[in-house]
Amino acid sequence: xxxxxxxxxxxxxxxxxxxxxxxxxxxxxxxxxxxxxxxxxxxxxxxxxxxxxxxxxxxxxxxxxxxxxxxxxxxxxxxxxxxxxxxxxxxxxxxxxxxxxxxxxxxxxxxxxxxxxxxxxxxxxxxxxxxxxxxxxxxxxxxxxxxxxxxxxxxxxxxxxxxxxxxxxxxxxxxxxxxxxxxxxxxxxxxxxxxxxxxxxxxxxxxxxxxxxxxxxxxxxxxxxxxxxxxxxxxxxxxxxxxxxxxxxxxxxxxxxxxxxxxxxxxxxxxx
Length: 272
What we know:
Elements: E1 11-15, H1 20-31, E2 35-40, H2 43-55, E3 59-64, H3 70-84, E4 89-92, H4 108-135, E5 139-144, H5 157-177, E6 182-189, H6 195-201, H7 207-213, H8 223-234, E7 245-248, H9 262-265
Parallel strand pairs: 1-2, 1-4, 2-3, 4-5, 5-6, 6-7
Helix pairs in contact: 1-2, 1-8, 3-4, 4-5
């Protein structure tokens, strides 16, 4: 991985930093010169991410927090600001897929948990991050949504609803705080080889192969490729970009000729 000091001197907070896209983003921020506050519900996993950054010569601290709980997010952001003095960048990666279940079979608990993490978690995170950035003159926030926000996946009603709403709250917040120097964008990954997606593929023989066959590039994306978009959008090189929803999906939703029939798509999540 070639680095160029893209975020040198910046303070970056990443939720969901214990694995997958969140970990890749935290590692890349550090490699590009940022000091990192890594946040995750799983304290052992996020401690490992911070240790990886430190072992590579970077600076990081780890905080355990459930993004669905506003008080925990507020505490994590406050601790990061105490540790580093301010907050310049934030990438909100924390999310869950939920069960693959037809809508009529959803329970209240299944629905509420997915929305609590994927949507309320983004709200809680952005609210704390915006408040911190307003105190120091601005910053940049990226919310990790999903390509499922533009091409819904049968069986994942709560996931699709939550990720679609993340796009909406991103655009709204971007409009509210553009004049204050806070940029807010969304990244929409396609099928990405994260632990969450690979665990899903392991449930049924041939599912991964069918998912790959339905992509123009004939491969899954890598968490590191999504991280590149996240970090670039937080950098000064993206200084005139806000309210954007950026697909990182290998062209899957840009080339209609490659679209997989709906029957074949059913049950194959778009985002890792």
